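Changelog-adjacent note: as of this version, every example in the card shows the full chain rather than a window. The one below runs 298 residues end to end.
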Amino acid sequence: MMDEIKEAIQAVKSMTKPESNVTLFKYRAINMNLLTMLNQKNLYFAPPTKLNDPFDCQIDVLKALEVALERKDCQHRSNLEKLNNFFPELERLESQFNEHGVCSFSTNIFSNLMWSHYGSNHSGVCLIFSFPAEYIKSIPNYCGLLDVGYSSYGLRKWLGMDGGQYLENLDGTLPEDFVVALRNNFLSTKSKEWHYEEEVRLVRTTSGPVSFDAAYLKGVCFGLGTSLEGVALVKSVLSSNGYDVQFYKLTNGKGDFELQIEGLDPFMRFEGVHFPFAHKAPHGFTEMLKRENIRGKL
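Full-length structure tokens:
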């Protein structure tokens, strides 16, 4: 399993236009957001203003251009200076980019920090998706699969080093390839502090939910501290909604801080477990749990 995951991680890097299945990981706490996601089979594309980093996708494009032109190592300076005549258009594009939708994944299932920050202190799950290229390309208003870059210089570095090359023949309209490259860098550049996320993003021009086929969820890995109640609840929700997945458990590896994955017995039974938020579950969840013969306080 570990070798398969590592191969999948390498295959997805920088794959903006996927031609084969793409394996991605999504860390989640076991809460109503997760249950609703699995029940409705929806991926949520968040608007940039709702991301957890207040600097994420909030770059001032005009300021970045000003700083890029001040850099001594600015490439294609004469081309880049042409953008000084396009301030209204650049401001319009920045506003447009902030109406896009971002769905975040990781390419690392073995990250202690990710399990702690997004996997509810190792008590949550990591969902293992394998998306066909055809599905990704068919996402409504799909823009790209973007490998997030981490930099202290953000957009200003891209503008100063690469942005000008798109503007050689700039006339009265910004070239489409420049606009696409600007958008991709705007939506996929984060501060270096976030590098541990090893993030990949699906991006579309609008925010909101997008449905996925249950067959695309191939596995669920539980954290070091996931409770029996949590495991039982997730397994029951998946069973009742047509998923056919492999279950895995995070365990301690040979090294002091090493993580590894082991298979989880799919026939595990959970006796007398307690579902602490079953009374808040979506309509039908309680009956579903009863049908699955999961005994406990409902």
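Structural remarks: The two ends are 35 Å apart (CA to CA).
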